[in-house]
């Protein structure tokens, strides 16, 4: 460490405990101060807006700034854990810088304090610059700064005093140090050797006082962070909302094949297993009483609906399978649910679009995220809806409460804007949306695809009959058949599960007489329209993955 480390330069050292003034202690003080600040900020954000929590604000900014290929790589490498990995990385980098701030504070308090405040300022700027930032966005950062600075100053003063006390008892140790500027505790960490330490030791700076105090600060930080999480959960619980009875609903879903085949995706995706993809680290918390949806742009009259207005309108239900453009072949970003909403045509007609020159609906969500849905696609007769309910319940917060779009047949990034508050009729020439600005395709029809759910890749099974099973989808067209190929042999038809409409996936199962050895299993879908799932491989970027999933399995 630095040449002024008392532990290395003190000529006559005593065996007395004196490590408190060491580099580790100062690095630790930076860490503790930062943790305390971040926790206090997190707790404050839980009371204002969870998205303003310093760590989450920085994380969101990193997401926005990350180039598309890196995002792709992160999704491909970490899958659904990408958010946790991102927040984790932000925390790790922050803590490294925090330790550095502590070390700097050892040389000069102002240096360490400066770095700490610069970190908080960056987080504060990230929070304030969020498109949906409220007036209170800066408050968590201010609290973080105040708590972090207070803890750092307290610890640094204490450590200095301890260093001084030690130096005092160790005799002339300090003489070996860099020249001192001990004024106002702002100088290097070791005081002039000649100065009686006791005179400069602040109250509470005893070794025990420091350790106990640090422990208390650490405990308080954990408690504050935990309380922040808890308050966030409680505050965001949806209060009782009574959805209207839909004017039209499909028949209840028939029993799927999952009852007969272990490991097969259920016909309706349980909400906990439904993939979630969005750019938000903190789920937007929207107050249904003040939220409104506005339809504007190239319309006859701009109209605005409250949540209560929407619940008074006629709603319908449809079974629709959502798919993410980032899903790789055989991947998990596909889910099926029963959605309740207002047909988009009905809403747009309230604003009047007969004479519109628009070619896209630009959705804007409460956080400023935008999405372009081709107007022609939305209105071509498919069941495009402004959705308020999912599987018979109000739309959950992470699914876009109070309302989201669902457009069958196109990927989520072009048809399923969550937390939507504005639908603007405009043109692609005039306005771009979040993902298209990042070079994803303008139109995103879902590519026909299929997935093997069981057996798992590289699994071992006993010889005999094995159920090879999975799901397949070709929204707006429907699945005609699913075929399975064993060891590169001929394609053979699988048995299909129940049919819940062209926009919903089909389960399938193929009974395979497995012989001992290593085998490859592949599946492909054939649309009702005759389109065969292509073997030509494509990456998700820029308009969705293609290819055929092939897995290896072992049979004993
Ligand atoms: N406001 C908002 N809506 C959004 C997104 C987003 O990042 N922000 N992501 C879209 C993408 S890429 C997909 S695939 C779907 C996923 O919907 P889900 O999370 O309900 O599965 O939401 C879409 N709607
Ligand atoms: Mo997506």
TrEMBL record:
The chain crosses the membrane at residues 20-40, 84-104, 111-129, 135-156, 209-231. InterPro entries: Ig_E-set, OxRdtase_Mopterin-bd_dom, OxRdtase_Mopterin-bd_sf. Keywords: Membrane, Transmembrane, Transmembrane helix. Residues 281-434 form the Oxidoreductase molybdopterin-binding domain. Gene3D superfamilies: 2.60.40.650, Oxidoreductase, molybdopterin-binding domain. Residues 170-204 are annotated as: Disordered. This is Oxidoreductase molybdopterin-binding domain-containing protein. It comes from Nocardioides lentus.
